[in-house]
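Support case: user asked for a sample of complex input and structure output to validate their parser. Sending the pair below.
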Amino acid sequence: MAPKRMLMKGSEAIAEAAIRAGCHHFFGYPITPQNEIPEYMSRRLPEVGGVFLQAESELAAANMLYGAGGAGVRVMTSSSSPGVALMAEAVSYMVGAEVPAVIVNIMRGGPGLGDIAPSQGDWGMMTKGFGHGDLHLPVLAPSTVQEAVDMMGLAFDLADQYRTPAVLIGDGVIGQMMEPVVFSDKPPKVFEKSGWATTGKLPNRRRNIINSLHLDPEVMEQHVLRLFEKFRRIEEQEQRHESYRLDDHPELVICAYGTTARIARSAVDELRKAGHKVGLFRPISAWPFPTRALEPVVEHTKVLFGVEMSMGQMVEDVRQVVRGRRPVRFSGRVGGVVPSVEEIVGWVKTELTAEAAA
Amino acid sequence: MRRLEIDRDRCKACELCIEACNRNLLALDEGLNAKGYHPIAIHDEQECTSCTLCGVVCPDGCFTVWKEQKAEKSR
Amino acid sequence: MATEKIVFARSKVLTDNYLSYCPGCTHGVAHRLIAEVIDELGITERTVGVCPVGCSVLAYEYFDIDVQQAAHGRAPAVATGIRRVLPADRYVFTYQGDGDLASIGTAEIIHAANRNEKMTVVFINNAIYGMTGGQMAPTTLPGMRTTTSPYGRDTALCGHPIRMAEMLNTLVDPVFIARGSLSSAKHILRAKKLIKQAFELQHDGFTFVELLSTCPTGWGQTPSNSLKWLERNMIPFFPLEVLREPGKLPPAAKAYAPDLKVADDTKKGN
């Protein structure tokens, strides 16, 4: 029998997907535009014998994640940019102490209090600066509600497999949009955690300590090197992307992710209809950035064009891969303004004209 | 008859036990321990009443205290 | 023939590690009391501790139980995460200093207490920031000199010390709130009883034991004089008492109307 398709709002689908991935513990705090996630969790988790707790702040919620994840259970929180900023401390501790947890960031306009409209302004913070110190953590960027649903299970698996916090970044569009989704009926993977989780020290084992402090510099260095060996494995094995209409080596490749990629996809179709050879490269893993897949795309195109709902953060990762071999352009909207298909078409047409004239 | 054992290398010579002992049996030793402190030593161990107050105030867990048990009378 | 038996020894719930605290620092005493209580209650296998940032950041080296090291002030939140996801038969405690609990962590302690989290918080109040070199703390006494109050704490500038036990005592639900002292053998033995009572009650709700402690290095005094200084100066401001226990509840512990239930007409479109 085919799995049931349901029409669900993005936020609620994300929450339901987490529950089905075996996450029965949610600690969070209200912030627009993701309140549907904690509200859904507060209704559903008691139904499955889980724990929902509204914390006193995002700061506290993230530290509750550290405690619960360190005690060996699947746990998550969700928030939006200003609240996520408060979590950086706990995330750094989670990376250092190797505590698994999942954080959902439904990005909104910033900096500061900003506004409550959609944004992609946290790519840089999530992939480069989500906490002090030398660290990396997996960051996933879904583009549709179905993809967000599938990625919740993936996020928990990555978190447990690599003993790391993992992030899912969306925006208010994905959060509010209603789309048909199918939930996988595969049972969630189970990972053995008794070797490190603080559940109560039985006589047959050493005490488990969740800790990121290593006062001896030599010990600290070894610890960081070991973490980076883990990050190297994640970089090697967990790059994800989608290529759209790149098979015929178009002369211009739009680089976009999340909601913007959906709009850009329609723009690519419009441009193709008008006779322009363009395509779309969509990172799905923000970290590790899909450098391996982007490399041949760079070789076979003339221009890369970043489009984001930001002043250009993901495009910096593109520039790093391109290493000056091709021009990398950027256009975006900020403040919660969502670019339209026509707008993106216009930007690309202008660029193609300029390139032809050059 | 053992009454008191002091873990010399744990001792930091804080002298709180000297005050706690109401028989004045404890004093800093002349020698040094591995950390460079003059550790506590007991003189006249047989005067110790096993009150355990030295152990109660010691922050470092240096003391083990024994108490004499009267022999069982056979019937 | 006379035999002898051990009447006092290091607790086996403590590891063999030498403590890194300063000579005469009462952290060692507090650690021992907690370890002895855990041993006497037979809960070593079911206890998870949370240690703070401060001198006792290394407490995870000293307790032979599962421990999590928490960010500064966040121990009550970390402990909440642990408490809420582990089976109900576990015991959870935090161990926090006055900077950790009463400064950066004020929100976390109040809300964990207000939610009546089933845990024990041991609050080591020595009126100073020890680890970072002796700065002023929220519990530093008026006139007390520290490295950031070199002229003595000026209450006109930065207010009076905070009495955390009294503050938490204004909440409705917590089950046990007490303040003891580690300033003499007599007080230490009483403090152990408070800690034991707190652990015994924690499955009913939030339990809190504040322990007046010394910091000889930060206070610039000998360990012995520090104990006397504590008794002379701290106890008058931070009274030693059981503020709340079953059968002894302050007026705040009663909700403001008996059997208070909000009328559920808020969502019916009124």
